[in-house]
Amino acid sequence: MQRYIRDILLALLILPSAYAQTIKHTTANAHAHNDYEHPLPFYTAYYKNFGSIEADVFARNGQLYVAHNEKDIDSSRTLAALYLQPLRAMIKKNNGNAFKDGKPLQLLIDFKTDSVLTMQTLVQQLQQYPDITGNAHVQIVISGSQPLPAQWAQYPAYILFDGKPGSYPEGAIQRMPLFSYNFQEYTKWNGKGKMVAADEKRVQAVIDSVHQLHKKIRFWGAPDNVNTWITLAHMGVDYIGTDHLDELSNYLETRPTGEYQSTDNTHALYKARYVNNDKLSKVKNVILLIGDGMGLTEIYAGYTGNRGQLNLLQMINIGFSKTSSADSYITDSAAGATAMASGQKTNNRYIGVDATGLAHPPIPQLIQRYGMESALISAGDITDATPAAFYGHQADRAMEDDIAADFLNSPVSIMIGGGRLHFTQPLKGQPLTPQLQQKGYTVYPRFADLDKITSRKWLLLDDSAVVPVLKGRGDFLTRSLQKTIHTLQDNRNGFFVMAEGAQIDAGGHANNVPYNVTEMMDFDKAVGAAMEFADTNGETLVIVTADHETGGLSLLAGDIQKGYVSGHFSTNDHTAVMVPVFAYGPHSLDFRGVYENTALFEKIMKILSARK
Fold first, then answer.
1. Which of 251, 276, 305 is the last residue of a domain?
2. Of residues 568, 584, 598, 610, the one with CA closest to residue 288
3. pLDDT tens for residues 5-55?
4. End-to-end CA distance of the chain
5. Number of domains making up the chain
């Protein structure tokens, strides 16, 4: 009595999808479609660790020729020469494994000629390759013009078959590790945007039905682009076929660093009250928050990772800053921060000096005349380019010992971050600690000391505290900002604080979406703390911006409710795109529009100079 697989599949269409959530796609899930048409058959896909390689064969005169059409047959391009011999060589090289790491390899052979004749020829040839046929790490799967399922039992057990829509006799299912379906029979989706709901349901049902049989599935005839690969991977397709080996390989290899899935680390928002927002009333305090490397896509990735909420996006006064430096279309942090700190376009790598090398006073120095105090905070080294531009004057950002020494001439009251050795053990010169103490500063080496600090002037320099969020930094940035505000808020003349989310930039340079998203979310916690103080105080202007965007991040897929985001970077360096400027509190309207990054300095100084 026969059991009809088609009936089983139809019955299983109603079962829910769970398998898709268990597949972790790597290049082992990549299928080299019509592999023989690539410039270097077998080896290109093999060295990219593709788990499945496809070859079409024609049987003729006792030989199997590899070609897409009969007219393309070339006597030198045989299955043995292009696939069997190279595979045997790799097995020998890997001590019996198809791949060095023991991963399996599927060789999908698509018959283009008579099934029985082609099978006879294949079995005869495979008898010469016992290291392939007897290898548990190699699967030989026959597709195309297959023998009838009733005949399968007469062929060696190492011969497996590709499943197709249809009915099969009982027992045949055991010889079918894979089902291959024509994508176009289920949807005409072109790979752009999102599949329509009805088609998506139909495709998912087919995938689920195959998985309920504990078999793998691939589609042929599917669009061959990143959006399709993402879609098929999320739906649980086991083998993703492609003619673009490099592109698919790159996508799959970068999936661990290209995707972020929220767990339990989302943060609640401060509920904005918009106290004196839009008003042109007195500004006593300015909090400038710089998300280093933060562009619009980084912001939206953080918004997605935090399941559809950011403190930052409650701000309603928004502008854009043009970031080019004096000598480059694309700025670095040194020139970008100098523009904001001193109002000067300068060359990349220059700190606190203009393009001619002339030093210019930064905001903390200029606001001394108003009796204001200043503080600088970074979730990275305090001697790095962005914070350095608010107190240092050097021709190269790499001169961090000299930048640290510049702090001796700065009026800044509080600094928090890493880079301790530049102050305590510089490579040249004497430690700065004694001179800092003479100037009334206390230097603290541990972030754990934060809540114990009672002095007015202090440095907290703890390199172990400024590791990435993913490595346990915790609420360093937010707590540092809150402590700084608490220390300075009783100055009747007000304060200026610059706090940097330094490692959003590092995530962009690393082309690492989880790194990028978690740093953005951490930065947003500090934004919420600044907004809360601004509402409580009523005389505090909060400005949030970036020095530049890093990585050229594109968002390819996401799910806001699940906190899932998939991205792709176009570079591991900075880009030239404009960056947003968000403002909150009195005079926040002044920051609307599109302007040069130097205008941030000009606007802040104009607002402070007009105080009554």
1. 251
2. 584
3. 333 333 333 333 333 444 689 999 999 999 999 999 999 999 999 999 999
4. 96
5. 2
Is there a domain that residue 227 lies in? yes
Q: Which residues contact 438 (CB under 8 A, 6 or more apart)?
A: none
Amino acid identity of residue 487, one-letter, is T
Residues contacting 276, CB < 8 A, separation 6+: 538, 539, 585, 586
Cα torsion angle, 220, 226, 228, 233, sign:
positive
In a domain, 265, yes or no: no
Tell me if 386 is assigned to a ligand binding site: yes
Instruction: Enter the DSSP assignment of 428.
Output: S
Catalytic residues: 333
Do residues 243 and 308 both lie within one domain? no
The band of 612, judged by pLDDT with boundaries at 50, 70 and 90, is low
Q: State the pLDDT confidence band at 264, using cuts at 50, 70 and 90.
A: confident
Q: Give residue-wise pLDDT tens across range 151-170.
A: 999 999 999 999 998 778 87
Q: At what angle do helices 245-253 and 226-235 cross, to 10 degrees?
A: 50
Helices 333-342 and 598-609: crossing angle, nearest 10°? 20
503 falls within a domain: no
Mean pLDDT of the chain: 94
| Domain co-membership, 371 together with 451 | yes
In a domain, 256, yes or no: no
292 is in an annotated binding site: yes
* 267 assigned to a ligand binding site: no
Alpha helices in 192-288 (DSSP H): 197-212, 226-235, 245-253, 255-258
Q: At 482, which CATH number?
A: 3.40.720.10
Is 266 annotated to bind a ligand? Reply is no
Torsion angle of C-alpha atoms 230, 234, 239, 240, degrees rounded to 10: -20
Q: What percentage of the chain reaches a pLDDT higher than 90?
A: 93
Asked if residue 402 and residue 546 are part of one domain, the reply reads yes
From residue 539, alpha-carbon distances to 281, 592, 607 in Å are 8, 19, 12
Write the pLDDT tens digit of every residue in 275-324: 999 999 999 999 999 999 999 999 999 999 999 999 999 999 999 999 99
- Please check if 500 is assigned to a binding site: yes
Report whether 137 belongs to an annotated binding site: no
Which residues constitute the domain of residue 461?
285-496+508-519+533-574+584-609
Do 120 and 230 share a structural domain?
Answer: yes
Q: Is 393 annotated as a binding residue?
A: no
Looking up residue 147, the CATH number of its domain turns out to be 3.20.20.190
192 plus 295 within the same structural domain: no
602 labelled as ligand-binding? Answer: no
